[in-house]
User: Fold this.
Amino acid sequence: MKKDSNKTIIINVGRQMGSGGHEIGRMLANDFAANYYDKEILNLAAKESGFSAEYFEQSDERHGFLRSLFHMHAPHVSDNNFYQNNFSQEGLFKFQSDAIRKEAGKGSCVFVGRCADYVLRDFDNVVNIFITASMQFRIDNIVRRRAIQPEEAQKVIEQEERRRAEYYNYYTGRKWGMATGYDLCIDASVLGIVATERFIASFVRAKFGLESTEALSTDI
Assistant:
């Protein structure tokens, strides 16, 4: 892979379910010769903590984590008291956050979800992207991926996005998907997955001065 620059770049990708965020994230990682992290970060967190990956699966954004919270308070990533109960959901989130920061400190990375935009809010050279898409576009994607009926696909989307929003809102104190929290929000159903990724890559290069901003309006 050819790298655009020696500059370390961190790309955080938030996404609606079925919008193509995972595919776009992987393509961005390829474009910028960056390490890609989605569910992989759970295994890294488990390795660092000494706990099994199953504990981190329980606190994952795609699960109903609120059902098993031991403490209902407003957590902060830097709170030292997270370690007082290693088996609490907050403690698991702390280990995951530490793993994200550790990997971000090693070089260019693309993180999909995991509240990485919040965890890395104090890092330099970070760009936060949110990918949305029309409901029909997302339904079609889920139907193809899971071989289910459209009605079931819509229910899956609504259920998983509710859990994702609960997870993000609880741990960050922000509102999931709100445009003010991102550098760029883009509808992947307008241009399609490939062209959307190319637009985002051009935006990232322009933001970090890797090439002329004219790339934003060309070759799409």
User: Anything to note?
Assistant: The two ends are 21 Å apart (CA to CA). The chain has a mean pLDDT of 81.
